[in-house]
Specification:
Layout (H helix, E strand, L loop, with lengths): L1 H24 E5 L14 E5 L10 E6 L2 E9 L4 E4 L5 E3 L2 E2 L20 E2 L4 E5 L9 H4 L2 E2 L3 E9 L5
Antiparallel strand pairs: 1-2, 2-11, 3-4, 3-11, 4-9, 5-6, 5-8, 6-7, 9-10
Length: 161
Amino acid sequence: MRALRNFLVRLFLLITVIGILFGVVFGLTPMANADMQPAVCAGDLMLYYRLGKNLKSDDVVVFQKEGIQYTGRIVAVPGDVVEITNESDLMVNESTVTEENIFYTTPVYDSEVEYPLTLKEDQYFILCDNREGAKDSRSFGAVDTSEIKGKVITIVRRSGI
């Protein structure tokens, strides 16, 4: 009887610790589409850290906009001036950004986002790696810090089964 009680207490503590870890500190979510390909493929599982708010350019983050969850790469941080030209160039602070691991052009979308866009404090400009057709800051504008769920820290690749 005592062994059963000890087991149940330890099981309860383990479940509580796991609940706190994945409810407060970490998050786990699958990549729903090909918007971040080839860095993150559809079906990959992303582990993200919720507590880190010291975000910088090139960080991959999970965020929620208008009730929908997205994943994207930060290309501009608070105070930066972002522009996407008609020639599909991404410019930050009047300098053309060259990204070695992005294999798509960055076309400007027909949306209500007006360029040049100056980011306010606690705002980020986030683009998907698959730049042609993905829904990102070109569609809905800057993303507030409060909308960012966390920074992706590791990816578990889906199996080929």
